[in-house]
């Protein structure tokens, strides 16, 4: 599940093309969700028959910085509820935090970036949901070495 795939769903399309080319599409379900396009649809995703965690991998790239703090807290809980195994998240963080709870409300890059929390704070939210950090996978996924990739596994 690519949460925040955008209107084009580029990553989802690439994965489907790959699966089709390798004739393994019948074994894998790939879906993108764009909260801007259909904000009510996430309720349908969450109310799936038990178990709710139906996606092996939930991806959320560059979404959290567009949310309020309350939305971030709820979104982390939702992402964790949807994932049966792994979460991959990228976001921007507070640049020079004074403390654990520091939040930047502007970043000079995009006016819709309204909440950049500290990395330790965001990591704590995932741990509270029962996930464990996978630093080994973060290192592999963060090919640009920006320190913005978070990978968590359900424990």
Description:
With 155 residues, the chain is of the alpha/beta class. Helices cover 32% and strands 21% of the residues. The chain is built from five helices and eight strands; from the N terminus they run βαβαβαβββαβαβ. The protein has helices at 10-21, 41-46, 69-82, 119-128, 135-141; strands at residues 2-3, 32-33, 55-61, 83-90, 103-104, 116-117, 131-133, 149-154. The radius of gyration is 16 Å and the shape is globular. The two termini are 19 Å apart.
Sheet/helix structural class: alpha/beta
| Biggest β-sheet description | 6 strands, mixed
N to C succession of SSEs: EHEHEHEEEHEHE
**Distance between the terminal alpha carbons, to the nearest Å?**
19 Å
Number of helices: 5
Low-confidence region ranges: none
Helix content percent band: 25-40%
The dominant shape is globular
User: Would you count the extended β strands for me?
Assistant: 8
How large is the share of residues in beta strands? 15-25%
Provide keyphrases for this structure.
155 residues, alpha/beta, 8 strands, globular
Topology record:
Layout: E1 2-3, H1 10-21, E2 32-33, H2 41-46, E3 55-61, H3 69-82, E4 83-90, E5 103-104, E6 116-117, H4 119-128, E7 131-133, H5 135-141, E8 149-154
Parallel strand pairs: 1-2, 1-3, 3-4
Antiparallel strand pairs: 4-8, 5-6, 7-8
Structure, briefly:
The chain has 155 residues and is of the alpha/beta class. The chain is built from five helices and eight strands. Helix 3 (69-82) links the parallel strand 3 (55-61) and strand 4 (83-90).
